[in-house]
Amino acid sequence: MRRSEFDIAVVGGGIVGAAIAFGAAGPGRRIVMLDEGDVALRASRGNFALVWVHGKGLGRPDYARWSARAVRRWRSFADDLAAETGTDVGLEQRGGLLLFLDGEGLTTQAAACRRIADDLGADAFPVEVLDHAATARLLPAIGPEVVGATFCPLDGHVNVLRLFGALHEGCRRRGVDYRPGAKVAAISREPGGGYRLDTAAGTVAAARVVLAAGLGNGRLAPMLGLSAPVLPERGQILVTERTGRLLDYPTGTVRQTDEGSVMIGASKERVGFDTGTETEVLAELAASAVRMFPALASLAVVRSWGALRVMTPDGLPIYAVDPSGTAFLATCHSGITLASVHAGEIAAAVAGGTLPDVFAQFSPERFADVQAA
Amino acid sequence: MFRRLDPKPAGAVTLTIDGRVVAAAPGDSVMGAMLLADTPAAGRSPADGSPRAPYCGMGVCFECLVTIDGGPRRQACLTPVRDGMVVTTGIADD
User: Fold this and answer.
1) What does the pLDDT average to over A90-106?
2) A275-285, pLDDT tens digit by residue?
């Protein structure tokens, strides 16, 4: 089979891989994006479309900062995508809420947000604690059982289907060679430098490799001397029929899309590689959503599904680079939120620029003890 | 815009779409009947009010939801026509 030569091979065509490929692409740079295809587990299917910093990074200010940077970059990232691809990804970033049906939950969350703010000092992102009445001013559709919420004005959400399309279209326009059905079987270092990738769609040679294959990174990382102890976390999601504007702000578990449907999510289950759904879990999600927003009870659920999201032992992303500086790995739970910095700092590093601190902060070496044990 | 490829369908059924009497053939979907009758709009987008028509034709996109014999939000693309069926679209009141 014909061999193709590239400067960078990005393994993975989901949101993470496409964001990195998009950001790294440019005139004179030959990039190939190797995608497994629609049979892939695709964490992108299980995302909740939130651009979200609020509540992240308790005890890990570096993660809170990285998330906050991502969220603050999102508007210009969305504008760049729109200018280049003509696709408006529907970013609404007026703030987001975490709603609580019990006072204890709200107290705990509020305390966590205060601790994160204390840790961050001057970089703190603003979080307000709202009582029922203040929550109702933002979300008049809440039910009487909602005791309150935390609110972060930096948060928001996007239309992820359009984001996925825009990233792929952006990659195409920037000259990225997209190869579906190209599951990577093996990666080896070439004696003279660079890498050889054996895929289901032929062999590819590239000077640099980026592993952005989500759960697939667990299998691929050791081929490059890296590690990625990733675990599948199933999330079940429901979506309702479209309806008129009911929710002006996203919440952590219920949000209305720009097309009018209401997404309800998401469970967090450790069930191995099972992408199925379970009626009891879906019923619980729906019941909780109806307690938050009683008007949802009259809407028909048009679809529900399960998808496997990427988890790491501590829930934080993994960014890795090998000693030669030519093999990279990026994997995370919050691929939508972090898309802006993946297309920014991470892509720049992959293309030969400065390595941002996250490669040291979120190196897989932190799991060395776990793996040895 | 749409026409039936089979010039002699087996049998005929009659249904109403927003009060208009429409002929169809056994085995047609309600979506097929809507398209053949030149009344493709199933409803309006709650987001921007634009008329929406069946898109995927295979049960996935939910753009074809109509009321069938009083049952709300039925998928026109997955529901076979029946004689005497009453279909009401989301633009019936326009």
Assistant:
1) 96
2) 999 999 999 99
What residues form DSSP beta bridges with A179? A34
Question: ipTM of this complex > 0.90?
Answer: no
Q: Whole-prediction pTM value?
A: 0.91
Residue type, A114: R
> Is residue A90 situated within a structural domain?
no
- Residue A133 sits in which domain range? 96-153
Q: Give the model confidence (pLDDT) of B29-51 as tens digits.
A: 999 999 999 999 999 988 888 99
Q: How many domains does chain B have?
A: 1
Whether residue B93 lies inside any domain: the answer is no
Residue with token string 């930096």: A154
Query: CA-to-CA distance for B37 and B54, rounded, in angstroms?
Result: 14
Neighbour-count burial of A268, counting CB atoms closer than 10 A to its CB (0-12 exposed, 13-18 middle, 19+ buried) = exposed
Closest CA to A333 of A63, A58, A40, A24: A63
- CB contact at 8 A, A25 and A171: yes
Q: Which of A92, A242, A255, A256 best tests the B interface by mutation, with the highest count of B CBs <10 A?
A: A242
Residue A205's domain is classified under what CATH number? 3.50.50.60
Check if B46 contacts A (Cβ < 8 Å). Answer: yes
Is residue B23, in this structure, part of any structural domain at all?
yes
Tokens of A15: 């949101």
Beta carbons of A215 and A41 less than 8 angstroms apart? yes
| DSSP reduced 3-state for A256 | strand
pLDDT at A312: 95
Task: Report the C-alpha gap between A49 and B27 in whole angstroms.
Answer: 40
Q: Is B45 on the interface with A (CB under 8 A)?
A: yes
Record the tokens describing residue A294, joined without a space: 């009683």
Distance (Å) from the C-alpha of residue A160 to the closest C-alpha of chain B?
Answer: 16
Question: What is residue A43's predicted lDDT score, i.e. its pLDDT?
Answer: 86
> For chain A, what is the mean pLDDT?
94
d(CA A367, CA A115): 25
Distance set, CA A350 to CA A32, A188, A189, A211, A344 (Å): 13, 18, 17, 11, 10
